[in-house]
């Protein structure tokens, strides 16, 4: 099947923009169709294990992450394959819309494939701390076919003062989650089967925090 590189219908971008402007987060099942999601899953699955970095090593080390709080394995998307190019093009479209409508000043987007093997987790964390990071909007896109509740691996999203999660998200293929990086603590519960995703961040240009980020 030919890869769908056509721009996504702008209505989905409208919905995401409204969600970011309003509650600051949204969950969008069917952001990509099954064929495009499967193309990304195959692209990720074709990478040899040695290209995956255990969490807490490499770029993330400048942050607060280490294997006590996360155990997933990641690989940055570099746009070297058609499915990656299509995904990055969609996110560039979203970036443009967020900037045009909400004046967010987003300058770029970085994202990585992440694989959580059985039992892997990511404990409760914030993706960005005010004044210490240039990450503004987090996106998580899931690549898993036929995810069942019994498989675990839910993403729990909390409000600032809430002990109970605001949302429990099943990592079903095609679903996109979007939220303001500084506002929503979240965690990934251990899964009972491999769990694949693309986690990404829209960033602003902020020389102070990029210097700190190393
Ligand atoms: O995979 C998910 O559901 C969330 C991942 C996450 O929180 C992160 O990579 O910062
Ligand atoms: Fe996160």
Account of the protein in words:
With 214 residues, the chain is an alpha+beta fold. The chain has helices spanning 10-21, 34-45, 82-102, 207-213; strands at 25-28, 53-54, 73-76, 106-116, 122-125, 135-142, 155-157, 167-169, 176-180, 186-188, 195-204. The model has no long low-confidence stretch (mean pLDDT 91). The relative contact order is 0.22. The N and C termini lie far apart (41 Å). The protein has a single domain, classed as Jelly Rolls (Sandwich), CATH 2.60.120.620. It is built from 4 helices and 11 strands. Bound molecules: 2-oxoglutaric acid and fe (ii) ion. 2-oxoglutaric acid binds at residues 114, 122, 127, 140, 155, 171, 186, 188, 197, 199. Keywords: Dioxygenase, Iron, Metal-binding, Oxidoreductase, Vitamin C. InterPro entries: HIF_prolyl_hydroxylases, Oxoglu/Fe-dep_dioxygenase_dom, Pro_4_hyd_alph, Pro_4_hyd_alph_FE2OG_OXY.
In helices, the fraction of residues equals 10-25%
Main beta-sheet strand count, sense and barrel state: 7 strands, antiparallel
Low-confidence stretches: none
Strand content: 25-35%
The value of Rg in angstroms is 16 Å
Could you say what the CATH architecture is?
Answer: Sandwich
The number of strands is 11
How would you concisely characterize the structure shown here?
The chain has 214 residues and is α+β, with helices and mostly antiparallel strands. The chain has one domain: Sandwich (Jelly Rolls), CATH 2.60.120.620. The chain has helices at residues 10-21, 34-45, 82-102, 207-213; strands spanning 25-28, 53-54, 73-76, 106-116, 122-125, 135-142, 155-157, 167-169, 176-180, 186-188, 195-204.
